[in-house]
Amino acid sequence: MNFKNMREYLAWLYYQYLLITGIYVLEPWEKSIFNSVLFSAIAMVVYTSYVFVPIHMRLALEFFSGIIGGQPESAMALMN
Fold it and tell me: Which end of the chain is least crowded, N or C, by CB within 10 Å?
């Protein structure tokens, strides 16, 4: 894919973004505020997913492994 086709494709994607969100009717300063708020919200979601999802996945794995058949550490300590 050459540079011109890529640029046209990105321009088409941006145009679709404007149409789907309906911000093509806004003034330029309103577009910048809307895009800033949207970018901030997406950045916060990505950050919290990066920070908290692995912790919750580990806790869920420990919980379900205990239910499925693993014995808790306290039971193993009592056996020894």
Answer: C
In angstroms, what is the C-alpha Rg of the chain?
A: 24
The 10 Å Cβ neighbour count of residue 14 is: 10
pLDDT < 70 regions, the chain = 1, 69-80
Write the DSSP assignment of 36-56 as a string of letters.
HHHHHHHHHHHHHHHHHHHHH
The tokens 């321009």 sit on which residue? 11
Backbone conformation region of residue 72, classed left if phi is above 0, alpha if psi is from -120 to 50, else beta: beta
From 67, 25, 12, 21, select the one nearest 41 (Cα to Cα). 21
pLDDT given for residue 73 in this prediction: 60
Quote the CA–CA distance of 7 and 25 in Å, as a whole number. 23
